[in-house]
Amino acid sequence: MERRVQERQEVSLTVEILDPPNLGKLKLRTRDLSKQGAFLLLKKELCLPVGRVVSLRMPGILWGEEISTISARIVRVTEEGMALQFLDFDF
């Protein structure tokens, strides 16, 4: 069952996870992106648990900024990576 409200577009961007700090600054690539979320490519064993909230730094192409720092919740983990839902902005 598809639950997305916004259609995701295939796009490869570098995203940096800033928080939780015990990870250090982790740089990942997106597989797809929408105004409400993104899928980050990462081996499953390195993914954070579903429900964890993280801070991300990414190019601000959706928001008209050079770089955006936003909060996101991990909503799904697969063999390919993790899906995130953006939390702290409004369009």
Automatic annotation (TrEMBL):
It holds the Pfam family PilZ. Gene3D superfamilies: predicted glycosyltransferase like domains. Residues 2-90 form the PilZ domain. InterPro entries: PilZ_domain (IPR009875). Transmembrane segments: none annotated. GO terms for molecular function: cyclic-di-GMP binding. This is PilZ domain-containing protein. The lineage of its organism: Bacteria, Pseudomonadati, Pseudomonadota, Gammaproteobacteria, Acidiferrobacterales.
